[in-house]
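Predict structure. Chain length: 159.
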Amino acid sequence: MKLNDIRDNDGARKGRMRVGRGIGSGKGKTAARGQKGQKSRSGVAIKGFEGGQMPLHMRLPKRGFNNPFGKDYAEVNIGMVQKWIDAKKIDGKKDITEEVLRDTGLVRGGKDGVRLLGKGEIKAKAKFVVTGATKGAIAAVEKAGGSVEVAAPAKKAGA
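Prediction complete.
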């Protein structure tokens, strides 16, 4: 047996029935939709409709909470920063600021600044100036001989 010899078993796939093509086809006239009513027409959307009773998806309670005061940080791991320093995309000798991280494309988004996370390891002796950092990230950077300066996020003009 070869791969190009493999076929479906006979009758495994059934062809599509063309409806509404004459009375002799057996599926003409009403096209197997029965007579009259909303469901015999096109454009029917009654998936969650329960005859006027409040639908199940609306009877169930809502869950979760969206904190209006929560901060939106762009997060970056120290391991990724080390990878970009090794690839010479970031200069480890200069201060690594949020602008540098954004310009090199390492972080995106995060309207409230950049937060440094401690995943991976860093060997470069670098100075970070970021909005936030975890204890583990600060410890790892300081162990490598660098420093982390946690600065307040820069205020945007017109805010």
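Summary: The chain has four helices and six strands.
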